[in-house]
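Show me any protein, fold above all:
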Amino acid sequence: MIIGRALGWLLIGVAFLCVGMELTSWVGGSGYEVLALGTIWAKINANSLVGFGAFVEKSISPALWRNVLVPILGVPAWLFFGLGGMATVALFRKRKRHRYSLPIRNRRS
């Protein structure tokens, strides 16, 4: 449970970093550019992105790559990581333990 919550908060932190990167480039004078998820992946390792695309197109379906995965890679990174982090924190939230007790009747005999 705590590992799931920590992962969720880590993803939310990454979302804030992505927002900071977008704001830094905007304030720096280069204009506002959306930092897409695919852009981050390409900056980290472009060959793995190309290889994953080729694998999906050849092994699974070219339509899956074009119609599903490419639009997901175009999503702003802060939105992807932020929603993923919030969903993970909500999924692994602390839950109240309910104590069910039977009503006690006073018996007078």
